[in-house]
């Protein structure tokens, strides 16, 4: 007999409810974040997205994908190897993201300009590298959009020496509505199954992109947006638009 609390349909129902709740709860925050996106793009800025662990999925949703804004850059731990000169073995360190000075090095490698905007994604919002990056971004004068779970971040201790969480430092906070621990379906022996934060966070990110592009079009800008590189002429068109931001868009792996 299968567990009545674990099924594809039950997850779909709960995920749909979480998504609907996140959409309804974030309308004002989406508007604020979209204005920040639009202002950065209008000022020839680049939007930098940073997340560790599974939050990298939402950073990928923002940066360098079909239907998204071209002036976008994903900051990742792999930058230390791809552009920072470190040996690939450094990425095997499970405590890498806690390394002192990590955020400063990743910030430097992203080659930001004053008009650039940062989006930092973290379900818990308390990881040291996440808060370090958020503090640095604000110290450097950038606007910051956070995507986090307010339920999770309020349920755990602040780990950073400052006592701050990601949400405390952002100009706009998008609450992805994920439960503490992220997963939805209870397991018989304890714990939960099927995370939902990627679904809700990615949807909120796309909502912000939609509203920011609408603002830019209404204000008379020719908005640089990717089309699929797998459509005829897509790769060439994208490369032409990317050339406007030469040296500022980093499309690495990892």
Describe the structure.
This is SIS domain-containing protein. InterPro entries: RpiR-like_SIS, SIS_dom, SIS_dom_sf, SIS_GmhA/DiaA_subfam. The structure is a single chain. The chain has 254 residues and is α/β, with parallel strands linked by helices. It has one domain: Rossmann fold (3-Layer(aba) Sandwich), CATH 3.40.50. It has helices at 8-25, 27-42, 56-62, 79-82, 102-109, 128-139, 150-155, 166-169, 197-218, 234-242; strands at 47-51, 72-75, 117-121, 144-148, 172-175, 183-186, 192-195. The protein has a five-stranded parallel beta sheet with strand order 2-1-3-4-5, sandwiched between helices. A two-stranded antiparallel sheet has the order 6-7. A hairpin with a 5-residue loop joins strand 6 and strand 7 (192-195). The longest helix is centred in the C-terminal third of the chain and has 22 residues, at 197-218. The radius of gyration is 19 Å and the shape is globular. The mean pLDDT is 93.
Q: How far apart are the termini? A: 41 Å
Tell how many strands the DSSP assignment holds. 7
Our count of domains comes out at 1
Number of helices: 10
Q: Provide the CATH top-level class.
A: Alpha Beta
Note poorly predicted spans: none
Biggest sheet character: 5 strands, parallel
- The rounded Rg comes to 19 Å
What topology, given as strand order, has the largest sheet?
A: 2-1-3-4-5
Percent in strands? 5-15%
CATH-assigned homologous superfamily: Glucose-6-phosphate isomerase like protein, domain 1
Can you tell me the overall shape? globular
**Structural class by helix and strand composition:** alpha/beta
CATH architecture title: 3-Layer(aba) Sandwich
Mean pLDDT: 93
How much helicity do the residues have? Answer: 40-55%
């Amino acid at each position: 007999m299968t567990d009545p609390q674990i099924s594809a349909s039950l997850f779909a129902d709960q995920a749909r409810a979480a998504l609907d709740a996140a959409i309804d709860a974030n309308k004002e925050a989406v508007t604020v974040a979209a204005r920040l996106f639009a202002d950065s793009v209008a000022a020839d800025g680049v939007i930098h997205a940073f997340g560790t662990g599974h939050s990298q999925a939402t950073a990928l949703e923002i940066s360098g994908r079909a239907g998204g804004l071209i002036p976008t850059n994903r900051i990742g731990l792999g930058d230390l190897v791809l552009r920072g000169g470190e040996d690939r073995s450094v990425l095997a360190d499970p405590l890498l993201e806690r390394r002192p000075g990590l955020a400063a090095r990743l910030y430097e490698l992203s080659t930001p300009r004053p008009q650039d905007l940062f989006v930092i994604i973290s379900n818990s919002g308390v990881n040291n590298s996440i808060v370090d990056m958020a503090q640095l971004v604000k110290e450097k004068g950038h606007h910051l959009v956070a995507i986090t779970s307010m339920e999770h971040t309020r349920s755990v201790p602040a780990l950073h020496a400052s006592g701050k969480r990601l949400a405390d430092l952002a100009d706009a906070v998008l609450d992805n509505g994920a439960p503490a621990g992220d997963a939805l379906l209870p397991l018989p022996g304890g714990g939960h199954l099927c995370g939902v934060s990627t679904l809700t966070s990615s949807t909120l990110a796309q909502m912000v992109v939609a509203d920011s592009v609408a603002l830019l079009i209404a204000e008379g800008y020719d908005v640089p947006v990717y089309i699929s590189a797998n459509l005829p002429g897509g790769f060439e068109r994208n490369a032409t638009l990317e050339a406007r931001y030469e040296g500022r868009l980093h499309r690495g792996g990892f």
